[in-house]
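Before the break, one more example. Copy the sequence into your notebook; we will annotate it together after we see the structure.
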Amino acid sequence: MDKIKEFLKNFKIVDVIIVVCVIIALCVGFVTYKGYRQTASKQQIEAPSKIVFKVYMRGVTFSGDNIPIKKGDKTFISIRNVPYSDLEILDVKADRRKIVLPTLNSKKVVIVVEDEGQPDLYDVVVTLTDTAKITKDGAVVGGNKVKMGLPITLEGADYKFNGTVSDINIIDDVNKDLGTDINTTDDIQ
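Here is what the structure looks like once it is written out:
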């Protein structure tokens, strides 16, 4: 008994606290490894799923006859200036910039016409698809939560445009859910 008392006198309170903390950490690690306790990241992920999201690009300038982004092609995207991957383009819709003009007609106060002063300025909406991890906070693509307002850069062989996510939908079958809701504009008129 005296030997045990002398042995315990050699330890200080700090040493005892360190040993107890190490034992607790090992127990928590063992319980997590065996699956009795799940970490927060495993609880958050519900399931991987297909998503379709639209990227809105305001004030895109191009003077050619056709928009360089085509339906059915692939485009490389960067999310928050971090390169991610090539994604399939489901749809492209481009409209020339419009202006509002007042009228003298009492039935219509204003009319909307194309801005002839800026003939090469367009607003473009590109619809993309990808597989994302679905969490309780939304879809996660490339380590980033894809939400409306997220800055995205689309890059191809002859273009690099900046835009923001304007819509996002979680779907199972892309062709079934898109149906006739998307209008395609391959050539600019």
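Residues 173-189 have pLDDT under 50 and may be disordered. The CA atoms of residues 77 and 154 lie 5 Å apart. Try to locate both features in your own notes.
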